Amino acid sequence: MRVAREGIPFIIISNALLLAASFSAYRTGSLWLWALAAALTIVAGWVVYFFRDPDREGIRGEGLVISPADGKIVLIAKVHEPAFIRGECTRISVFMNIFSVHVNRYPVSGAVRYIHYNPGKFLNAAIEKASLENEQSSVGIESPIGRVLVRQIAGLVARRILTYSRAGDTAEQGTRFGIIRFGSRVDVFVPTDCTVTVREGEQVFAGLTTLAKR
Fold first, then answer.
1. Which conformational region is residue 22 in: left (phi greater than 0), alpha (psi within -120 to 50 degrees), or beta?
2. 3-state DSSP call for residue 214?
3. 157 exposed, middle or buried (CB, 10 Å; 0-12, 13-18, 19+)?
4. Number of Cβ atoms within 10 Å of the Cβ of 183
5. Range with lowest mean pLDDT among 43-52, 74-83, 93-102, 175-184
6. What sign has the CA pseudo-torsion 3, 110, 58, 136?
7. pTM (two decimals)
8. Which of 16, 183, 187, 208 could form an S-S bond across to 58 if both were Cys, CB 3.0 to 4.6 Å?
9. What's residue 125's pLDDT?
10. Is it the case that residue 168 has pLDDT exceeding 70?
11. Crossing angle of helices 8-28 and 31-50, rounded to 10°
12. Whole-number mean pLDDT of the chain?
């Protein structure tokens, strides 16, 4: 199983702790240390699972908006986006829990025209005001269907957003552009003349699920 490079330090640390606990348990015969080693075995396995980075070869197309994240659709709403789209658009919000793949992928192809990081709070990422008040990183793409904005939003547990896009980059639909560690949300803002093809409560997958089309 391939893992995201961002997870390698965490994998090394969790396995080092497991080895230390196992060695100490072997040397001392302590039941408490054996119990600790067993617990750390579960933790080490979960860390690898959390940072998995599977290949995603789903449908692609200029008229499609592909999900940038794994998770559940928690909000679909018409909103005004003033920073990049500068007008009315449709926002589709995907909430990622701690068991979701956390690698984020470009929803459309085009040119990266806008990058903005905003420090903020760490509210529950599933609620409405998290889109405005939480720590977040936004990437604006000039695409064949118009301007599309994808926004990574930190949550209660997630405290580290990583975005590798830079203004002037070429975005390729379905390729990775960042990751959020340990539970969070990704919003996609699309033109109002796009037809949303998902509904609230639906499970979606980065690079596979079509969120909207024109």
1. alpha
2. coil
3. middle
4. 23
5. 175-184
6. positive
7. 0.84
8. 208
9. 47
10. yes
11. 160
12. 87
